[in-house]
């Protein structure tokens, strides 16, 4: 009898990935750059269906303040499930919602929390951004909005327009302080002051063509824009400019909130109190939840003016309340500031060794490494062109070494680190060791953007 050769079956995870590529839309994003199939996770670690373990520095795009499956989050979810409470309640009052709102208000700037209203929105942050725009337009009777270059506020129509991803006649985009690529060629305090003056001039010059807006929206740290922290002095100037002209200030804390930047809310660093604050991601404790909190004077819209079927997610509220309480009780915001500063110091040392690193920056555990073409000429401020090819190679080399990172920035050339606030010093070192090793490997094999020699370490020859 003839023997037939048995062809080994492909691993199950390969079939899952293949079916995903065949069935899901061309708009899928993370799945393209991270071809893994997570099956288990705890804290910083994800285990794939292929048996490999990864350190997760994406954290659900900043959603997982406590990492994956933290015990206090799981316990909060089990308590609701075991209680028999309804899971879907539209916008009805429940003990779970009341507990979440109470905990959230306890963390907010006191001046805002004392006389605030909350609107539960659809489950995504972009819906909360849309609600904020609708709120200030209703309250002011005006239409225009002011937003900033490099911003990211979501993917729905108005949020995308405010992010610069679509043209919209009612959105005016303003310069955001960005030391490494300063739009005024100065950087530092001078660059931030010029940006503030530009904003003030547009508002006060009757010939600027900019009508009095319904509101201004900004991020205290631009996340998707490349991890660019706004100077506290500039944030205070924006608050002064908007307050003096009765322009509601909307602060998008979707990614910066719940301790991420080293303060519970990023606005706490500067001491400003916004008129509207947009919250999502970490406030749901890993589950979908989005709200806006705003001064009661703005609460002039009619019942049903902003609604959504899935704005009563009881499991998310329970998980969110547990997360907020845990971060607050354990000082994880302060811990993020201290550990983030130490990680920045190590990243500065890495930058000193590699000409391909244009700048490292961040605040708390929201860190970025901007990669540039070392063979290109620097501009007058010392900035070199971005190198997205090298950034992609670093991201892939990180994944090969069991480290999950993502890219951001205007040219997708900023390697971003968003680890959970619960990481240990040893885990932080492991993250940076793997990143450094991945960078060294990538620069030795990746041609420059224009076909130049591979990027090399300072003091070495190609």
UniProtKB/TrEMBL annotation:
Give the Enzyme Commission number: 2.6.1.76
Q: In which pathway does it act?
A: Amine and polyamine biosynthesis; ectoine biosynthesis; L-ectoine from L-aspartate 4-semialdehyde: step 1/3
**Signal peptide bounds:** none
| PROSITE patterns, per database record | AA_TRANSFER_CLASS_3
Domain of life the protein comes from: Bacteria
- Give the matching Pfam families: Aminotran_3 (PF00202)
Q: Enumerate the UniProt keywords alphabetically.
A: Aminotransferase, Pyridoxal phosphate, Transferase
Keyword Nucleus: yes or no?
A: no
Which NCBIfam families does this one have? Answer: dat
Cofactor(s) this protein requires? pyridoxal 5'-phosphate
The keyword Lyase belongs to this UniProt entry's keyword annotation: no
Q: Which family does it belong to?
A: Belongs to the class-III pyridoxal-phosphate-dependent aminotransferase family.
Region described as Disordered: spans on this chain: 442-462
Listed name of the protein? Diaminobutyrate--2-oxoglutarate transaminase
